[in-house]
Amino acid sequence: MTVNFDKAFGIHDDALLLFERRTQLLAENIANVDTPDYKARDINFDQVLQNTKTEAVKLNATHKGHINTSNEALSEVVQFREVEQSSADGNTVDLQKEKAAFAENSMRYQTTMHILSKRISGLKAAFRGE
Q: Is residue 58, in this structure, part of any structural domain at all?
């Protein structure tokens, strides 16, 4: 009997890649809070969900820990944030929002890791016949 890991893990492995990419974007935003003309970027999760419904987006890593950002579907979901309050130097980073988004993203990442861990434990138990 063969095990289909795509079915076993569902969308959680792809979600980890998205959360990882979003963590990178948010960290870049925070690091550039004082950089003139820096435009804050984020992932548009609504667009990701829409793409998943229509064309089953699959994120592929070119190297361990890297995401292929040349993939049109992924580059479409990374967008500049809308400015709520303009700044004199043209920077669009709101540090409080970035920190809140970073904390929320970290929590979602940890939750997804927990779900994957439980699924892997279930598969291990099934292989052992428990």
A: yes
